Amino acid sequence: MYIELKDVCKEIKNTAVLTDISLRMEGGKVYGFRGKNGCGKTMIMRVISGLIRPTSGEVIIDNRTMWKDMTFPESIGILLENPSFLDGYTGFDNLKILASIKGGTDDIQIKDAMKKTGLNPDDNRKYKKYSLGMKQKLGIAAAFMENPDIVILDEPLNALDKEGVDNVRAIINELKHGGKITIIACHDAEEMELLADTIFEMENGKIVGK
Amino acid sequence: MLESKLIMYDIKNGFISNRIKILFFILVICVINIIGVNSIHRSEEMYGVSATIMDQMCFVLGGPPYIPKGMFELYTIPLLWLIQNAMIAYIIGYYATNDVAGYGVQILMRSGDRERWWLSKCVWNGVTVVVLHLWMYIITAVVAVTGHEKISFSLTTKIVTDVCNIGSMEGKMYEYAICIFLMPLIVSITISALQMTVALITSPIIAFLTVESVMLLSTMFSNRILFPNYGMLSHNMITCGSDINIWEGIAVCGIIYIVSIVMGLVYFSGMNIIIKERQI
Q1: Under the phi-then-psi rule, with left for phi > 0, alpha for psi from -120 to 50, and beta for the rest, what region is B72?
Q2: Is A23 left (phi over 0), alpha (psi -120 to 50) or beta?
Q3: What is the C-alpha to C-alpha distance for residues B132 and B226, in angstroms, rounded to an integer?
Q4: Using a CB-CB distance cutoff of 8 angstroms, which residues of chain A are in contact with residue B107?
Q5: CA B39 to CA B147: how far, in whole Å?
Q6: Which of these, B190, B178, B212, lies nearest to B125 by C-alpha position?
Q7: Does this complex have an ipTM over 0.90?
């Protein structure tokens, strides 16, 4: 399993948001993107996940080119910057709806994913009653519950307490040992050093250090 | 299989997220029907005839008055007709664009295919319009029956020419039935598909204003380009001698519908999906 970005550029409204990004990521490793707000961390994640089409360059995942051979990576879980769920359903029901689209993930796996983040799968509260931390945990559970090959976590530690942060660390460690490619963006430099094997420093849409 | 899962998700989620708007729509249709019953009763007394359910349907779905060329001074804004159509546009307006900015992104990525996702939204759109029209038919029938109107599918000439904006009755019965039941539905499905595509490319508000402008202009001018005219019995050649006819309307709506869906498909295939910033 690998992801390769070749000279990826992205312009939005004539402004370059990514410039000549070339990198390679391998399975079994954790990659971090670090930089100031607006440096392009989230944009790279969106490009890899297929939500944004690069203006030029290629994103190759296991010999298959995005936007040519596939629309989205076949096996990906993503925690979006704005994890959004259905207000009128419980956390478990929300995840069950998502899992039902692809199929192949049973209730036990969903409950297991929730427990790993520190959520109680039997909690009958609707999502709208969730605290910010609980919403974040549900977003993380949604990202890895289907055991995807690529897991993208954009600011996974936001709104989490110490126990939540420890849980995320354990999840990332498990993903790494499971041979997955884990990509994270995190504004906490210390935490990033702890979590990632390789850190890409970003500035103005460019990778300026590794 | 995946398609049916996506469609089921959209239909269920679409109705749940729009439930308050749908209730408001039902309320609006009830109010329009009550106004209709009162107007029809006055006309019954005036002409000494008995109204039918079909007359009531004609009041709700028959369309605004026809304005002959050069007689614009006769025009008054047909509020009831515009409100019921604006409500449909309001219900359709935000679902697809909101979904792609939220939970729907997770669904989209799991579906693995942008085209499938868009086509599922198109099915949701059509189903929603059909359900809203079914509500209109049911409410109208119930109000008509409780208002002691005859259960009959024939139109009462004196009543429909008096209160339903119908100029004359020169068509066949099946043509009136098509104009009352089918054409407003076909036009509504078409304009809703157009609205969803415009909302995707621009914004839901611009799309709403666009379709409402087309609707408003259609009440003023019986023009073939303003295709909502095809959904108005009152503007049809069988009631006012215009050049608006049923079969051309079905063809025009079919073309606009397909073009709208394909435009949306092409646009969405390459669209950048940028999710709103999280409030933490």
Answers
A1: alpha
A2: beta
A3: 23
A4: 98, 101
A5: 11
A6: B190
A7: yes
B-chain residues within 8 Å CB-CB of A81?
A: 275, 277-278
Query: DSSP string of B151-220?
Result: --SS--HHHHHHHS------S-HHHHHIIIIIHHHHHHHHHHHHHHHHHHHS-HHHHHHHHHHHHHHHHH
A148-164, pLDDT tens digit by residue?
999 999 999 998 999 99
Q: Give the model confidence (pLDDT) of B89-106 as tens digits.
A: 999 999 999 898 889 999
Poorest-confidence range of A131-135, B70-74, B187-191, B268-272? Answer: B70-74
Distance in Å, alpha carbon of B201 to nearest chain A alpha carbon: 15
User: Which residue, among B190, B194, B188, B209, has the nearest Cα to B260 in the 3D structure?
Assistant: B194
Of A46, A53, A159, nearest to B280 by CB-CB distance is: A159
What contacts A98, CB < 8 A, 6 or more positions away?
A142, A145, B106, B107, B110
Query: Contact A205/A33 with Cβ under 8 angstroms?
Result: no
Residue B280 pLDDT exceeds 70:
no
Tell me: the pLDDT tens digits for B214-256? 999 999 999 889 999 999 999 999 999 899 999 999 999 999 9
Where in chain B are the domains?
2-269
